[in-house]
Structure formats: structure tokens, C-alpha cells
Amino acid sequence: MKSAHFTDVSLRVDGTDHTVHVDNRITLLDLLREHLGVTAPKKGCDHGQCGSCTVLLDGRRATTCLAFAVAHDGAEVQTAAGLGEGDQLHPVAQAFLEHDGFQCGYCTPGQICSAVGMLEEIKSGSPSHVTDDLENTAELTDAEIRERMSGNLCRCAAYGNILDAIQKAAR
Known about the structure:
Blueprint: E1 6-13, E2 16-23, H1 28-35, E3 54-57, E4 60-63, E5 76-78, H2 91-98, H3 108-123, H4 142-148, H5 159-170
């Protein structure tokens, strides 16, 4: 049924194009999970505080529980499930596996997307709050990783292993 409260939203999700007729109030997270069956991003807090719903939105990390789907018509969404090439894991996902960067795994897709986005931010020269030398933003210290990943919580407290995984992936 067409009405003023519904809109067609087109997205490219993990390389596949979709157009969905949705309520204007639906979040990008709910569109992905409920309408497209994309379950890598998780609904944790539904307030943008835990990072479980993090994806790469037009190449930048974003919490999808705070994003209205209609505001991202035409966007490209990449989830942790769409990061690898065929059966080959993305280097960040592989590092998480090798360094046991997860326990229950609930936060892992968001952690991986956030780590991939964070590494791109560093490559592009974007400083963080703890960056000491604004002329050399590429130095990936533990403090820098902790600050940049602070929006992604892990209830199992696998932070040490997540840090090791990101350091390995960065190398």
C-alpha cells in the first residue's frame, strides 16, 4: 500500500542491490534484519551505545540502530558477512579468529566492521582524541586503537584479544 508514511529505499548490501518499500520511521538496522534477512549487524542496545549494529555505510563505520533507512537511500552497506572474498575471510576477520578476538561472538560483526573502518581512518590521516602528533596519524598505538574502538562494547571482555587482532591486521 502506497502512502505518505512509506518510501521505497534502494540499497546495495554486501554487493547485492535491494529496493524495499518501508515505513519512514524504520531504522537501517531493522530494514537490514527484518526486511532483507541480513543478520550480521546485531541489535544490542538500540541506542547507539554498544556498536553491535556497526556496518560500513558508504565506506565509513556507522551504527545502524540510529540511522533512518530513508536517509540512506542509494547507499552502499557492507556488513562483516560481506567483507571477505568468497571463502576467504577479510584480514581483520582472520586476525580475530587467530587471536580469539571473541567469546560469545555477538559483538564480533560490529567489532570487525568498526576495526576495518578504523584502519581506513588511520590510513586517511584522520586523528582521534588521543593522537599526539597530528602530522603522523598513522602510528597505531594500543591507546589509539582503544580510543577509536571505544564505541564497540564486548560483554565477554575480550578486549585484549581484540586489540591483538587489530594490531596483527594492521601489519
